[in-house]
Amino acid sequence: MAKIVVFGASGKAGRQIAAVAESRGHEVTKIGRDPGVQAAAQVAAGHDVAVSAVADLSRDPAEFYTEAARALVASGAGRIIVVGIYTLMETSPGVRVIDSPDFPDEHKPFCLGHAAGIEVLARSNADWLVMSPAGNFGGKPTGTYLLGQVDPTNELTYEDFAQAVADEIDRPTHHHTQIGVAST
């Protein structure tokens, strides 16, 4: 049994992740709203795993995601799992979805904000993983999922995504990387 804190536990992904972790017998601390960066570091301290499923659309994305990543690293949580975005996955070596010429400019600041947070994690000594939902959330839960470089036209259910996150908590197999997740 692990001691887990889920930031964003009032959102769709965070709520499902917390529920699946609890159903597996983990001790889960659920944080529904952003407690502030300093408070987040204090709340996550002493937890085996910190899961971040947060967004603050009222703030500059680069500022928000770098502060959130720094707080998670500073907390000393044994493992950090961040709910990422698929647009930062590579379509070929060194080329991300966001880098395509037809990617909408209005979405780039949010995506690059996520990327800035990942850079903070990558420069740290923390055991981190970014799990990025592929495609659109929808459909019926399948109970199974695909990991890695998955087809972004796939659907993904919150339930299947939560299973994938909980499996990484139970059996950590991916470290210091970003992986895509899709329902099968």
From TrEMBL:
Highest taxon of the lineage: Bacteria
InterPro entries per the UniProt record, alphabetical: NAD(P)-bd_dom_sf (IPR036291), Polyketide_Oxido-like (IPR051606)
Protein's recorded name: NAD(P)H-binding protein
Species this protein is from: Lentzea indica
